Amino acid sequence: xxxxxxxxxxxxxxxGSTILEAAEKLxxxxxxxxxxxxxSFNTEHxxxxxxxxxxxVTGRPNLAPSCCTPVAEGMDVxxxxxxxxxxxxxxxxxxxxxxxxxxxxxxxxxxxxxxxLASAFNIHHIKYEGAQSEFPVDENGAxxxxxMSKCIMCRRCETACNVVQTVGVLSGVNRGFxxxxxxxxxxxxxxxxxTFCGQCVQACPVGALTEIGYKDEVWEHLNNPKKTVxxxxxxxxxxxxxxxxxxxxxxxxxxxxxxxxxxxxxxxxFDTDWSADLTIMEEGTELLERIKSGENLPLLxxxxxxxxxxxxxxxxxxxxxxxxxxxxxxxxxxxAKSYYAEKTGIDPSNLIVVSIMPCLAKKxxxxxxxxxxxxxxxxxxxxxxxxxxxxIKEAGIVFDRLPDEQYDSPLGESTGAAVIFGASGGxxxxxxxxxxxxxxxxxxxxxxxxxxxxLEGIKEATVTIAxxxxxxxxxxxxxxxxxxxxxxQRGEAQYHAIEIMACxxxxxxxxxxxxxxxxTAILEAxxxxxxxxxxxxxxxxxxxxxxxIKIYDEYLGKPNSEKAHKLxxxxxxxx
Length: 575
Known about the structure:
Layout: E1 2-6, E2 9-13, H1 19-25, E3 36-38, E4 43-45, E5 54-57, E6 64-65, E7 76-78, H2 82-97, H3 113-120, E8 144-146, H4 156-164, E9 171-173, E10 180-182, H5 199-203, E11 209-211, H6 215-222, E12 228-233, H7 254-264, E13 268-271, H8 272-293, E14 299-300, H9 305-314, H10 328-344, E15 351-357, H11 361-367, E16 372-373, E17 376-377, E18 381-384, H12 385-394, H13 416-419, H14 426-440, E19 458-465, E20 468-476, H15 478-489, E21 497-501, H16 520-535, H17 546-556, H18 562-568
Parallel strand pairs: 1-7, 12-13, 12-15, 14-21, 15-18, 20-21
Antiparallel strand pairs: 1-2, 3-4, 5-6, 5-7, 8-11, 9-10, 16-17, 19-20
Helix pairs in contact: 8-10, 8-14
């Protein structure tokens, strides 16, 4: 332990701690902008570039950035001297002088950390006038909007992209006044290996990285009498959207979410959990077939489009391993534009399918050309959890006063296995529940596979089902995914099945969720809520969903049938 004093108060912290961490132990809040700590995957961004967190250290001529200055024995620190406060204010004023003044219409308005600091420092005019950096806006990828004119060079997105996700798209470009974080040669994201996971958007403290929104298009279709607009909601949305309305993290808002969507004007409100159950039927069948044949193992889950993008760019030699099953989002769209359209007599070109997703990569996924037939997309628009919250507020709906309502049938009936898709390990657990039941019978087969649960980046488990030792692994966060796949390439690990999610912790931490700033407690609360929802449902195995049984009887035949392959499966491409 290292002993020091901060503002004349003694404190002891572990060796290697920073002044910022020592101050936090005393209950002191030093303002920061570039600093961010991702507790859930033991990564901290400590570049000290913004200099907002400077403090005085006795005996040192210069101010020290507290976020990246390690403590030393006997150190005497003062956080609130006139010199430190003036320096912070000057740095903040300089950042504001080179920042666009469009706060009222910026998509990060009231969520912007620069804006909050300006308010905290009571800055109401720009002290330093002059030229401002200008860069073209990139919004060509259907998912992420980059406005580098708003970049403050905090480099948090760079750490998220390169260290946490190991995608390697973003880095510092140029020097001095024209310095900015961008892809090499200022390339558009669509011309890079970007996975569109959105973790850079979660990390960005300002409006330099935001999502591409589709609220206006959805409102237009909702008010077009010639169009029938239906909506699906992903599992992780129901345990996060309440945070946008003052609810505690982890409160389950399913009933109010459904009610709000009806009041917005959607003709039918359906559940992506239904197509998650459908995914297990297809993916589970595929897993058992591969285990039986011993070919193309391990099976890699294909529910996460960010992970699929990563695979296509970074591991093209493993393209034979992922399940060919589409994601639940795309399965829903394919069934809606075929089975549901036929049942209701709606022309698929007049049926608008909207998804509410925790994920920005889902926006990119819906735009992929293989998910459109005769010019008609399976999923027309994808809105993030944050976008839907904005629509609810725009419509004047008082969310916390809504009654709890139920999803519509038949594409709204789901099981506990489907709702846990939103947490890391949930897809694999759902598949294991059904695989075990098919091999052992429903009466004797287990339901809870707790070994694959949790926020750990890599989890391994061996599960015995009908005398078969099934080796499985779960990876979340693309940096962890890379470690796992490289072990497989080197022949150091062998599995039957691997669940992969691009975002650390799974969809609960998606790029389109309410901003959590790496707070593990929020992610834990969302995760626990999904498992509570699972336990509260009467049916907890996907193959027992009555409406899933019905669609196979009436329309698809059996899992992995020719018709099922045409509608519910896809191919991958080396990029």
